[in-house]
Amino acid sequence: MTARRRPAGADRARVRGSAVLRGTRPRYAAPRPVRVIPHEVSVFPYVEAMTRVLAVSSVFPPHRHPQSEITAALSRFLPSGSDTALLQRVHASVRVDSRHLALPLERYGPSNDFGTTNALFVEAALELGERALRLALADAGLTGQDLDLVLSTTVTGLATPSLEARLATRSGLRPDVRRVPLFGLGCAAGAAGVGLLHELLTGRPQDAALLLSTELCSLTLQSTDTSMANLVAGALFGDGAGALLAVGRDHPLYEQGSGPSVVAARSRLYPGTGHLLGWDIGHWGFRMLLGRELPELVRLHVAEEVESFLAAHDLKPPDVDAWICHPGGPKILDVLEEALALPETAFAASRRSLAAVGNLSSASVLHILGGVMAAGPPPPGSVGLMLGFGPGFASELVLLRW
């Protein structure tokens, strides 16, 4: 975050919209090393946090199956002569125990045409999205009338009018609510959406805003595609929706929330990597593109970006108390943890989410953050880092503070 002009009354122990934490000094004072108290408080220099997370919700379809049942079903769908043993090995390797599916398992089979599948997406996405939205509102003590902005994201289906537009009336939103639908950011969209909410609420600090992520990954599965990319996708991804409700620093609930403040965000595109992750879209629907080089790219470049982002705020990876890392897969988590020289427990919340519900694309980081918040807020001053990565290839980083 760039240095800011000293606000009026900054000599007070607390400045509206920011906390001057014990042992820190404003950026306009003479520089002084940032003290880090291990396992207790990570001390920040002077920053002006402008966004407070009030509530995070996650919801799932009712059709939950252990990984073994999904593996058996997908094995039956493969063309005659296919290597079912390979599919079974892939499913066993991704460390997923169970997943939720948009449809009953028996309704999956030879791929429908895109129009039929997308109609199923819209129907299920609206039901899940409304549940996630209403739950976040209830947890924050607000109603749909209190929302000034709704940002929605998905990469697993198409809707025009967009999902949040279709949900506006049935969820009680105001007719003048501002809407920002996103498509194409993929798994990175959860972290990107939080960063975008932060920027928008910085400009309108009196507002309340909601990020809605709805991902029905199972409806994109090409059941007869035997490519390694499709086998991995069929083993890894689950269905679900999440919502994050945040307010700006001038909102009446800003000081009352126990959730983290958003301190800063950073986006990064890596040139020449667009072919490594995304969709091949055609009459068949969405076909997964997944390059083998992704783990090495994460090791070499995302880890460096994390260190650079933290250094810009006088922090290092060991100073982060809560890692909210998108669970792109077990290998991604392993190589990033190793590259950052983190303990094996650093991404424990991400691994728990992956095992319980699979990779939820953009909704995963919301599920992980919600779990961290539900377990009890970290001590005041604790540092959190949300990481997402997706098509582009791109990384999204969000610095949090409790």
Automatic annotation (TrEMBL):
Belongs to the thiolase-like superfamily. Chalcone/stilbene synthases family. This is Stilbene synthase. It comes from the Bacteria. The active site is at C187 (acyl-thioester intermediate). InterPro entries: Chalcone/stilbene_synt_C, Chalcone/stilbene_synt_N, Polyketide_synthase_type-III, Thiolase-like. Residues 263-401 form the Chalcone/stilbene synthase C-terminal domain. Signal peptide: none annotated. GO terms for biological process: polyketide biosynthetic process. Residues 117-245 form the Chalcone/stilbene synthase N-terminal domain. GO terms for molecular function: acyltransferase activity, transferring groups other than amino-acyl groups. The keyword Acyltransferase applies. The keyword Transcription does not apply. Keywords: Acyltransferase, Transferase.
